[in-house]
Every structure is written in structure tokens, then in C-alpha cells.
Amino acid sequence: MAVVIQMTARRLSLSPLLTRMRDRSPGLAAGFLGGVLAAGLGLGSFAMLVMVLWISSPYPDSGPGGALHVAAALWLLAHGVELVRVDTLSGVPAPVGVTPLLLLALPVWLVRRAARDAAEGGGGGSGGALVSGGAAWAGVVAGYLAVGSGVACYAAAGGALLPSWGWTAVCVPAVAVSAAGAGVWSARGCPHEYVDGALALLPRGLRRLFFGEDGRERLGAAGRAAGVGATVLVGGGALLVAVSSVWHLGSARAALLQLTEGWSGRFAVLLLCVALVPNAAVWGAAYALGPGYALGVGHVVAPLSSAPAPLLPPFPLLAAVPEAGGGTPWYWATGVVPFVAAVTVGVFVAATKGAAGSGWAPGRTTVVVVLAGVGCGVLMGALAGMAGGPLGVAALARFGPVWWQVGGAVVVWIVGLGVPVALTVRGWRWWRERRAPEGRPANPRESRESRESREPREPWGSGGAGATELYDFSVFEEGGARLAGAPGELVEPVPPFGAVERAGLAEAVAPAEPVPPAARAGSVPGVEPVPPAVSVAPAAPAESVDREGDREVGRAVSRETGADATGGEDAAGPVR
Fold it and tell me: What's the whole-model pTM score?
């Protein structure tokens, strides 16, 4: 009985190993749960969208199980995984490798948010204690990959779209690792140690370029300029796609009506077009840069020359493809997009604080522009590689821009035009600074606050005008001088006494020596009376003498009337 009582009274606890793991790595468990939640939210979003379309479809091809398999396949496709379509007309499996870039944004954002919250300890930046970055990163990646493995197995178990295991093993971990690393880095305040550790792996010559004098500043300026250039290129490509779509609006409408029937199917096609808009923008940028993009093996669409495209499936975005031929001034005008991007990069680098005016030397400015061009080329090449891919076999095995051609064209455009623009803008700023008059800023739009912020300020009371002139007595002296004269007569104001030193303030305003009583009875012979001071009030002793006389008169009157001396004094009181 005692044994039973002892065992039931004993508190059940975790094993010592699990307890030590929980205490030593508090961010690992939270990160794992965050990764699972991020993967579940992304998968749930795709499943909800697919189920809504399946319910609204008047002629569904399969049951809810098939719709869930499609949702799992779309979730993997959003990570860059290549899918294989097995239900083709020819019976030959056809790959689907074009990743909608807009769908990729959702899992990246979810994983980054989960890693940032795990690294901040769940405090959200408002008081939560920071945990180990490595533990938070490992937990998020492990939780996300655990869910991703289950989704891949479920999608491969059946359905019309099967994932490729090779692409699954590469793309899903790559997205999870990179997005989680970005989240932990942002939670730590974007420190430079991680970047320095990555740059330390470069050869010695390149390390000297990055870690030399002003190396960090040059690298930051080049990175920002590369981002600006890529933004201009993608925005220009989107503008070209929009103009071409409006120009071919009739063909796009006919393709939409031919592709499907019913509002649910057309709505699904429109959603697919929206998800592929970033891909179309990258294609437009590749077209403007010169290499163009491929619409099948041996069919390249470029501004200088365009081969006849093969028979393409009806799709609204494909209706915006330019006609075969090319070489016309209208097609050449698309070169304005990379021209504007190169000029923007050059001006951005020249406007940097280190390169403005007499800052960086021309050689350093050139190096920054070259680094910006290389960075922009790498970024655009990566986007071009993700925006394209195979859509079938034979003629559709190559679909989209070629990444290395797009990256090389970006480097040529930005370095070829950005360097002269940056040097020209820098020289113009230097010439304007030299021509600026002495004491006047070179930039006329410079605000007064920015100029005053660079001037050293002396503390109050340390010297200068604020320490010698304590107050301005001119107003009071002028008023006293006007009141000193007779009624209706104006007297000239007394000139100010000047600055009074703080150290000698006590001696300057010290009280005058007391006047003896004999001097008050009458004037001393041989001495002229001193004129009354303007700002000095009557002496206090004179007022006290008048009060004593008034009291004596009151007492005499009280004796004559027979009143009490005290009451008389109280009744009479001082004459005011």
C-alpha cells in the first residue's frame, strides 16, 4: 500500500535529457512550431483557393481528393519544384517548370516572419528576450521541412501533377534556409558580421577590395544601386507587357473565351494570369535588354530579330507576344528601358555621400558602378532563371529567357552607360563646389537647419554674448527717464550702462552706504544737493520717521479725548 501511495504521489516529469534540451535551447522548440505553422498556413491558403474553384466548377474532373492533390502540387510549384503532368494526349509525361513568381512570395514571407519571431523570443520586438539565432533558424527550417516532406509524399501518391524528387530535395530546403536566414538576420538588426563572414570566403584580391578603405560603404552603395537598377528594369518590362496587352486586347479576349467556358473557369484563368504577371515583367525586361526570350526550341523573340513562333496554346498573356520579324524602330524603342536603368544607377552612385563632390576618386566611383552592374546582373539572371522553364516536351522544352544571357546583357548596359554617367555627374558636382562663392553652400536648396547642424554650438554660459549681456535694461531705463520729468515734459532717456559682467554683478548692484541722521535734518554746508536718481526709490528710513510722527500725534489726540491709548492707536492707525 505504501508503494502504491508513493508512486501515485510522485509527480510525473519529463526525462532529464528532454529537460536539459528545453532549458538550453528555448528557441529551438519555438522555431520548430513556427516553421510548422508557416508551412501549414501556406498550404492551407493554396488548399482553400483550389477547393473554392473546385466547388464552383460545374464540371469537376475529380473529387475532393484530386483537388487536394492539386493544391499540394501547387504549393511545391511555388517553391520552384518542377512538376510532371501525366495525363497528356500523347501519353508522354510533360514537365511543368515555370514557377509563378507571385506564388513564391507567400512561402518566403511566412518563413521569414516565423524565423524573425522565433529569434526575438516571441516578443515581437517589444520587450521579448533575444534567443540564439542558430537555434531559432534550425528550428524553423526543421519544422518547415517536416511539413514539406509530408506534402511531397502526399502529392506523389496520386494526382495529375507529380513532383520531381530531385527538384523537391533542392528547392524546398533552399527556400526555407534562405528565408529563415533573412528573418534571423533582420531580428538581429541586420548586423555586418554575417556579411563579413561570407565575404571572407572570397580570394585575397577581392577581399582587399571589400575590406579596404571605405570598403563597407562602397559595398553598401553598390548593393543599393543594384537594387534600384533591377527595380527599374522589372518596372519597365511590366510597362512593355501592359502596352502590348492593350495593343493585342482583342486577341487576349478571344484566347480567354476559347480556353474555357463558364465564369468559374475564366476566373481561374484570370488568377493564373495575375500570378504570372511578375514572370511576364521579367520577360519584358529580357526583351528590352536584347537577348529576348524563347517560345520553344529554336524560336527566339528579340527586338532585333524574331523567329516565327510555333503553334502556342491559347492564353491571354501569350497573345501579347510581338509578331515575327522585328528590326523596326518601334521594337528598337524598347531599348529605352535598359538605358534609363543604367542612367539611374550612375546617378544613384554619383549622388552617394562618399562619391559626391570631392569624396571618392574617379577610380573608386568606377569600381562602385561596376559592382552595382555585376550585382544587378546576378539578380536579374536569377529572376530570369526562375521566370522560365519547360512547359512540355519537344518544341515547348525551352520556354522563357536564358538566365546567363540576361545577366550578361545587364552588366554590359549598366557598366557601359553607368560609368560615364556617374563620372559626369561627379565632375559636375565638383565643378559646382569649386564655383560656389566663399561662405555660400554649393547647393542652393540646402536648408538652414542642415547648415546649423554642422556648426559647433557653445554651451550656455560658457562665454560669448550670452555670458556678458544678461538682460537688456534699455526699455526700463527709457520708461524711468520719461517719468522723472514734470507732467507733460519729456526727458531724454539715460544711456544704457552697457554689458555687466556676471562675475562683477554683485559689486555693480551693491547697496549704497547708509546716510547719517544729521544729513537728513538739513543739507551740509558747502555741498550741493545731489539730484535725485531716476531709478532709485525713496530711502526706507524716511518712511519710518513719518510713521513715528503720525503715531505721536495719534497718542496726543487720544489723551485729550480720554480714550484708551491702545484703542486710540488702533482707531487712528497710521496715516496712509
Answer: 0.70
